[in-house]
Amino acid sequence: MPDAKAPNTAALAEPQRAARVAGADPDVPRHVAIIMDGNGRWAAARGLPRVEGHRRGVEALRRTVRAAGEMGIQCLTIFSFSSENWQRPISEVRDLMGLLRRFIRNDLAELHGNNVRVRIIGERADLDPEISSLLEEAEQLTRRNDGLLLVVAFNYGARDEIARAARRVAEEVARGTLKPQDVTADTLGRYLDAPDIGDPDLIIRTSGEQRLSNFLLWQAAYSELVFSPVYWPDFDRAVLQQAIDEYRRRERRFGGLAAKTGS
Ligand code: FPP
């Protein structure tokens, strides 16, 4: 009987195939992505300012990165700042930028020491030059590490990512280096921000909200979605394990037949 968690990889695009083949233990998702939600509500429930929720959110992030590496997850993508988050009050945007700066300054050496490789997805144009160079530094310093891959979605919106990819495809077509009839889903996928990273197996959203909010819309085509009621600052290894247990109970079919009904 075919194993539903180990589909025929011949039918998959190269990054997906590499991802599936490389995953040693099919019960541990190779790539987990997290929408870290609920910092503000965590703080409000305690009569604290929102920034305190974000600060505690950074602590939860540190715990989660550590736990993910120990559990054998190969890639962890986090939604740290969306392209829509600029609409928040300027003071909150400033607080979030300050936390990101501090996170990179304080934690980069430790992440590097723990063999974590950092990659960034999202629109880099027009970012504050100091933030841009910190992001660049994190990627450059850790580029040869082969432990956990930590993908930070910063100034990221999935529709924006897809539109930027489509623009680059259109430019190639206009230059004559790509034929319109050769533009397939695989082609477009290669112009996304990190085409070499396989799609997330599991996407977790905390705080009880049940939507993707413009996160990894292309890559989430076959991801399992798990929604946790826990506010992000309370997230820890046990909650991550619960989400993985839920993932393990799911049967992934990738558009094929269920193992129990297929022949
Ligand atoms: C959602 O909570 C969280 C965010 C908008 C940002 C997540 C940021 C962090 C965990 C800290 C900074 C990250 C890094 C990498 C340093 P919310 O404010 O939307 O919560 P609410 O829905 O309860 O208001």
CATH superfamily of the domain at 29-157 and 201-249, please? Decaprenyl diphosphate synthase-like
Helical amount = 40-55%
Main structural class? alpha/beta
| Average predicted local confidence, pLDDT | 90
CATH topology of the domain at 29-157 and 201-249: Undecaprenyl pyrophosphate synthetase
Shape: globular
Query: DSSP strand (E) fraction?
Result: 5-15%
CATH architecture classification name of the domain at 29-157 and 201-249 = 3-Layer(aba) Sandwich
| Strand order in the largest sheet | 3-4-2-1-5-6
| Helix-strand topology string | HEHHEHEHEHHEEH
Distance from first to last alpha carbon: 8 Å
Protein model, in words:
- Helix 3 packs parallel to helix 4 (90-113) and helix 4 (90-113) runs parallel beside helix 5 (129-141).
- The chain has a six-stranded parallel beta sheet, sandwiched between helices.
- The chain contains eight helices and six strands, in the order αβααβαβαβααββα.
- The model is unreliable at 1-23 (pLDDT under 50).
- By secondary structure, it is α/β, with parallel strands linked by helices.
- The relative contact order is 0.19.
- Strand 3, helix 5 (129-141) and strand 4 (149-156) form a beta-alpha-beta unit.
- The chain binds farnesyl diphosphate (FPP).
- Residues 36-41, 54, 57-58, 61, 80, 85, 96, 99-100, 103, 152, 207, 232 line the site of farnesyl diphosphate.
